[in-house]
Amino acid sequence: MNQIRFYASALSLARARHRGLATLAAVLLALVVAGCGSGGGAQLSKAEYQKHLQTDGDEITKAFKPLTQPPSSLDELASGLEAGVSKLNGAAEDLEGVKPPKNVKKDNSDLAAGLRELAHELDSLKKAAQKKDPQQVQKTLSDLRNSHGLIDARQATDDLKKKGYTLGTVPQ
């Protein structure tokens, strides 16, 4: 039986992976989104909806915070991604369950769909990390740079900002 050791510093993609994950984490922080499960009740006011966006955004931020630093192993990467994927799916579910103000209904729907797609794409990265396959991790990270979920979510958040919604703060 062969024994394989994982040296994170030996990977040629280590710096690229950190930059990619740090960028992804920063973008996710910018995408802080979701309603807190108003369960299909009355239409939310702008202030109520904005509060939901900020509250769930904080949860997403906490989930991805560990990924702002280079992981020491692919196991650590997989673990961090698992928490993040869960929060993204939860945020998408919450968005689908609220009645946002009429002027952001489409943005809300687009944002939920973008978050679901991004969660799916990050789940692929998590699976590559769980398989301890650095080449697949690198390929998946590269694919994430053109993530449709990320692009769709970014467009929706840009529209929300243009309409005067505050989505939270993004650390520099």
β-sheet strand percentage: under 5%
Largest sheet: none
Gyration radius from CA atoms, angstroms: 17 Å
Total strand segments = 0
Taken from the alpha-carbon principal axes, the silhouette is elongated
Number of helices: 6
Helix content: 55-70%
Q: Round the mean pLDDT to the nearest integer and report it.
A: 77
End-to-end distance: 47 Å
In N-to-C order, the SSE pattern is: HHHHHH
**Poorly predicted parts:** 1-16, 32-39
Q: Structural class given helices, strands, pairing?
A: mainly alpha
Produce a short descriptive summary:
With 172 residues, this protein is an all-alpha fold. The protein has helices at 14-30, 46-64, 74-97, 105-130, 134-144, 148-162.
Overview of the molecule:
With 172 residues, the protein is mainly α. Helices cover 65% and strands 0% of the residues. The chain is elongated, with a radius of gyration of 17 Å. The protein starts with 13 loop residues before the first helix and ends in a 10-residue tail after the last helix.
Q: Characteristics of this structure?
A:
172 residues; mainly alpha; 6 helices; 0% strand; disordered N terminus
Give the SSE layout.
Blueprint: H1 14-30, H2 46-64, H3 74-97, H4 105-130, H5 134-144, H6 148-162
Helix pairs in contact: 1-2, 1-5, 2-3, 3-4, 4-5, 4-6
